[in-house]
TrEMBL record:
Listed name of the protein: UPF0349 protein II3_02702
Organism: Bacillus cereus MC67
Family membership noted in the UniProt record: Belongs to the UPF0349 family.
Highest rank taxon of the organism: Bacteria
InterPro entries: DUF1450, UPF0349
Lineage, uppermost ranks: Bacteria, Bacillati, Bacillota, Bacilli, Bacillales
Amino acid sequence: MPAKVNGNLFRDTGGRVLIKPLIEFCVGNLASGSQAALEKLEKDPNLDVMEYGCLGYCGICFEGPFALVNGEVVQGATVEELVNNVYDYMDENPMF
């Protein structure tokens, strides 16, 4: 396991600083069903998963499961689709 530097920053065995992707959930959306997605994504040690009171995306939040991935909205029609879309988004938008 890389050594933690600060927040979602880690240092690998070669001394390089790594940044984990940040996945953010709105507590209102968790109550509407995305809690299962949060729990699944929290099990991935390569992600930094956070829960907030409100992310300010009320219209999107009302539509269905969503999360912010590195600040970008990712949605799914179901919890399973949301999780898949989060991973797809990260694959299509690498941080490095």
